[in-house]
Specification:
This protein is of the alpha/beta class and about 375 residues long. The chain has 2 domains: about 190 residues, 3-Layer(aba) Sandwich (Rossmann fold), CATH 3.40.50; about 170 residues, Glycogen Phosphorylase B (Rossmann fold), CATH 3.40.50.2000. It is about 45% helix and about 15% strand. The chain contains 15 helices and 13 strands. It has a 7-stranded parallel β-sheet. A 6-stranded parallel β-sheet has the order 10-9-8-11-12-13, with helices on both faces. Strand 11, helix 11 and strand 12 form a beta-alpha-beta unit. Helix 8 packs parallel to helix 9. It is globular, with a radius of gyration of 21 Å. The mean pLDDT is about 90.
Length: about 375
């Protein structure tokens, strides 16, 4: 079987989706030495997905300048399948409108453009709405990371539930409680972090609900909590209000924006945090929740979207629109020592259930079914 994986739309630096694809590719390489994999990459993100295994082949795609890039990708996808005699082509960054091959598998991470169109810029909103609508009806198979996302696809886009397969995500085994404290101290110095802090990890964008997190943190400061708040992640779109919220009422010196951090620093950030906060309004999965749990950090997260499904009974779930409730949950997670010990134990067990080898076996099963025309 010849499988193409179209990594061209992914970023040049690691966010949750890039890290997820790295985990999947690592597991496929461990489990499968028989089938051939063709990894379509750009020069910019090639280093993230380069592999040395003999059955993994790198195909570098050089994109033209905008505005023809989207159309060019569609044409290239059509040609790539025939040029490399692919039995299956996997689209990790959701469907491409117009690419309707029954041999295509698309990963739909969530349907934010449909449920929350105001959270995206107009150009991206239009593209992804069309892509999701086309893919839901015409692609051979869609994989989603949670039952929540499958239900959303069926309910809002009339997807055939028989063609939507739930395949969760895995946690990289590097994410574990700290064994050595020197890297943590070095990362704190490098990013000018407070000794004790609440941590958020993810791109800065509207659905992450960071203005309310900052509002809840302001309440904590007023109640005498002296932990800092560390917000780690690259700037996304429509995020100026986050910085404005942090700058009000003299709060700015207690809120640290690290920007994008490398993988080693990210691990140390998780391990150094006293609580991990993830108040997102909507997630198709929410991998940072499991990464924090794997590092032995108590988690407070939203009760919306897939997050209750992912966190199970290992996190404090809270209405993300209720700042007082969010603040109260953070206080409990910070100061109730019995609760903290219980949350850490439950979190480690929960994160241990999500392995990339199990994910890779599920994807292999999907690839075989699509290649066979089932």
């Amino acid at each position: 079987m010849r499988v193409g994986i179209y990594l061209v739309p992914l970023l040049d630096h690691v966010t949750g989706r890039e890290r997820g694809m790295q985990g999947l590719l690592d597991a496929l390489a461990r489990l499968d030495t028989v089938n051939d994999y063709y990894l379509f990459v750009r020069p910019g993100n090639r280093r993230l997905f380069q592999r040395s295994e003999p059955n993994f082949h790198t195909v570098v795609v050089r994109l033209p300048s905008l505005p023809s890039r989207r159309l060019w990708q569609l044409g290239h996808l059509y040609l790539a399948r025939w040029a490399h005699r692919l039995d299956v082509i996997d689209l990790p960054e959701s469907p491409m409108p117009g690419f309707l091959s029954k041999r295509a598998v698309a990963m739909v991470h969530d349907i934010t453009p449909v449920l929350f169109p105001s959270f995206l810029l107009a150009k991206g909103r239009l593209f992804y709405q069309r892509a999701l609508a086309f893919g839901a009806r015409h692609l051979g198979r869609i994989t989603v990371p949670s039952q929540c996302t499958k239900d959303d696809l069926v309910r809002h886009l009339s997807a055939d539930p028989e063609r939507v397969t739930v395949v969760s995500r895995g946690v990289d085994p590097r994410f574990q409680p700290a064994q050595h404290f020197e890297p943590m101290a070095a990362v704190k110095r490098r990013h000018h972090l407070p000794d004790r802090f609440i941590l958020y990890v993810g791109t800065l964008e509207p659905r992450k609900n960071l203005t309310r997190l900052i509002g809840a943190y302001r309440r904590l400061r007023e109640e005498g909590v002296r932990h800092g708040l560390v917000i780690a992640g690259a700037r996304g779109w429509l995020c100026d209000d986050v910085f404005e919220a942090a700058g009000r009422d003299g709060l700015g010196e207690h809120v640290v924006f690290t920007g994008h951090v490398n993988e080693d620093d990210l691990l140390a950030l998780y391990q150094s945090a006293d609580v991990f906060a993830y108040p997102s309004l909507y997630e198709g999965f929410g991998l940072p929740v499991l990464e924090a749990m794997a590092c032995g950090v108590p988690v407070v997260c939203s009760d919306r979207g897939s997050l209750p499904e992912v966190a199970g009974d290992a996190a404090l779930l809270v209405d993300p629109t209720d700042e007082p409730a969010l603040a109260a949950a953070l206080v409990r997670a910070l100061h109730d020592e019995d609760l903290r010990r219980e949350m850490v134990a439950r979190g480690l067990r929960r994160a241990g259930e999500f392995t990339w080898d199990r994910v890779a076996r599920s994807f292999l099963s999907v690839y075989r079914e699509v290649a066979a025309g089932e």
